[in-house]
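Researcher: Sequence recovery benchmark, item below. Answer with residues only.
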């Protein structure tokens, strides 16, 4: 099994989009895929159960028979920082629970297991637990989704530095188009990141509504 942690330069930069699109692409090539969104904040009630949009998109892309609850064990209602939502709900986030959830999905023996964070890299989970602690425990290589907008250079470079300082490896990064029109001087910004990032550019993701459509440039990302 190959497994990656998917982080991003911020919240709303396309981590879920990339995760789901990669899963659909790999599934179309015959791979068994699973995704894990351990902690999500921002849910609607469906049949009285909190359902998160990211979790649903990742669940929809799974080829293994995992349940939505396994894909996203901690679903918090308000769309706020998860540790604050957890405190509000009286929930304590525990490393052991988040790791156990990962292992449950791994037990389906997918070829690829992707785990999406929430927000950016340095996400607090409360009680001095941080999302990077979970990634370190699982020793996952990291893929950084860079939302290509003004400010992304600083965000991408700081994110890469923090991952490296945590002793983790960066498999690579992807440049994600957040708008139909690319940011001004897209090519120059991309070139700056290609030079300064300590890991390879894996793919450029176009702005495209259909997340289920296999994307040829994502086929070789596992190498
Ligand atoms: N390449 C793209 N083409 C079209 N829409 C995109 C693309 N990337 C992201 N989006 C859209 O932008 C929004 C934010 O993306 P997404 O939900 O993947 O962000 P995120 O980084 O996972 O955020 P969070 O921190 O909440 O998990 C979504 O509505 C998503 O569908
Ligand atoms: C609600 C939102 N869409 C995400 N799920 C959570 C983003 C947390 C960001 C925390 C922060 O860095 O300020
Ligand atoms: Mg997401």
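Model:
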């Amino acid at each position: 099994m190959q497994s990656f942690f998917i982080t991003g330069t911020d919240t709303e930069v396309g981590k879920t989009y990339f995760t789901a699109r990669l899963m659909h692409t790999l599934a179309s090539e015959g791979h068994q895929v699973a995704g894990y969104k351990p902690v999500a904040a921002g849910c609607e009630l469906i049949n009285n159960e909190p359902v998160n949009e990211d979790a649903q998109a990742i669940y929809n892309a799974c080829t293994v028979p995992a349940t939505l609850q396994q894909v996203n064990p901690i679903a918090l209602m308000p769309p706020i920082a998860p540790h604050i939502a957890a405190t509000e709900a009286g929930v304590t986030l525990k490393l052991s629970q988040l790791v156990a959830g990962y292992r449950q999905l791994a037990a389906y023996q997918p070829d690829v297991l992707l785990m999406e964070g929430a927000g950016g890299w340095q996400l607090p989970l409360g009680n001095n637990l941080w999302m990077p602690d979970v990634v370190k425990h699982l020793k996952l290589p990291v893929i950084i989704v860079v939302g290509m907008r003004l400010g992304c250079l600083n965000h991408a470079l700081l994110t890469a530095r923090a991952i490296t300082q945590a002793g983790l490896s960066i498999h690579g990064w992807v440049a994600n188009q957040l708008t139909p029109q690319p940011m001004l001087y897209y090519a120059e910004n991309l070139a700056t990141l290609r030079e300064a990032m300590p890991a390879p550019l894996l793919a450029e993701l176009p702005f495209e509504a259909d997340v289920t459509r296999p994307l040829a440039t994502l086929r070789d990302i596992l190498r």
